Amino acid sequence: MFDYLIVGAGFAGSVLAERLATRSNKKVLVVDKRNHIAGNAYDHYNEDGILVHKYGPHIFHTNSKDVFEYLSDFTDWRPYEHRVLASVDGQMVPMPINLDTINKLYGLKLNSFEVEEFFASVAEAVPVIRTSEDVVVSKVGRELYEKFFRNYTRKQWGMDPSELDKSVTSRVPTRTNRDDRYFTDTYQAMPLHGYTRMFERLLDHPNIKVMLNTDYHDIIDFIPFKEMIFTGPVDEFFDFQYGKLPYRSLEFKHETLNTENYLAAPVVNYPNDNLYTRITEFKALTGQQHPKTAIVYEYPKAEGDPYYPVPRLENAELYNKYKKLADETPNVHFVGRLATYKYYNMDQVVAQALTLYKKLTATPEMADKPKKPAIIGSTSIMEKLVPRDPAKK
Ligand code: FAD
Ligand code: UDP
After folding, report:
1. Which of 79, 118, 202, 391 is the most exposed place for a label (fewest CB within 10 A)?
2. Alpha-carbon separation of residue 115 from 106, 142, 329, 390 (angstroms)
3. How many CB atoms neighbour CB 286 within 10 A?
4. Interatomic CA distance for residues 145 and 123, integer angstroms
5. What's the domain range around 10?
6. Pocket mutation for ligand 2, best pick of 82, 84, 172 (most atoms within 8 Å of C-beta)
7. Is 181 among the domain residues?
8. pLDDT tens readout for residues 313-335
9. What contacts 392, CB < 8 A, 6 or more positions away?
10. pLDDT tens figures, 156-192
11. Bridge partners for 225 per DSSP
């Protein structure tokens, strides 16, 4: 009998497994349908021996001391501040837009005060900022919006920025100084030996058993457990009973090139050209020395593995219906980017998982009290609460 069945070995599942096993002496089974741990943060050495991120570039950054210190128990770090160039009008310019971006793009020599005046002169008045278009045009005007944001967003999301919540383009600031870092968080670093090694250490405990290549549907009838932690897509858990929640997917095209360096920056964004949004050169992120170099192209698409929840009102409303179901499902806890339909970075998922751990163990009397098992043998609470579609496997 396991105390917890955890579905998903990404950040959400692995952090909870670690806390429950080491701090609360719970017996935990972690299952993942993929053939590896670490979820979308999974990295591995490719056939040429270069460390690559299978699911696109993952750069760790956070303002949370708690999250950084927590993960530091499982990895050493390589200080790393991320930088991105955008290919616009035949030039490579810093992204986020800053003083140098404007000067290079327009052949000017403005200082910080002058560029502020420039932005003010081109900015559009938007009374209420609701959409991802509003965010940008209200700061830098329509021309820069069209050069840097409109087409990238259309490619990435398959819809116009005016159809997306303001939170999407708000992720990228505008600067009047020369700071060309992509993030300004207090803690910015890469796990020294990679993400997967860090996850190996998170999951390395006698109370934790990991089963890979395992969809949880295939084992819940056979493996008894008391509670479930679910980190997969929430709509799938409930057999899409209110319809599918839209997720955006990507196709990753990995390449190894017979040259030591390839890009002018760790990541180059292509807002207006090509079918891909950006190219990443992994050695720039990891600091690895190697005579060859590995890059990845990201091609956005609608179908495929769910990578991004799509932040817009109608999706939030649909998610809220699933959330209500989730809240009403006893002994199952939903956490992580897909299970709570939130466009979360890694650190936010870690924080969410640590918060859930605290909640699960909030009242020691309750936590220690034996609970009625949710699943024994073939009697599954999910079968009762969520009728399985007989047409589905
Ligand atoms: P996941 O990592 O998705 O883990 C969920 C796991 O559940 C998966 O492994 C899946 O296989 C498993 N699962 C699902 N259904 C089932 C089932 N039925 N049975 C068994 N297992 C199942 N964040 C940053 O902080 N910095 C970045 O630079 C960054 N870059 C990103 C780039 C890309 C292209 C993407 C897609 C994301 C990026 N992120 C980044 C976000 C980061 O990947 C997520 O915040 C984090 O990985 C989410 O962790 P999670 O545990 O919630 O989900
Ligand atoms: N974005 C853009 N142009 C860029 C970079 C970002 O239009 O050059 C917009 C786009 O909508 C993107 C969002 O800002 O999806 C968030 O960018 P971020 O780099 O945070 O995306 P992620 O790394 O999560 O894919």
Report:
1. 391
2. 12, 16, 54, 62
3. 23
4. 10
5. 2-37+203-244+310-384
6. 172
7. no
8. 999 999 999 999 999 999 999 99
9. 239
10. 999 999 999 999 999 999 999 999 999 999 999 999 9
11. 2, 375
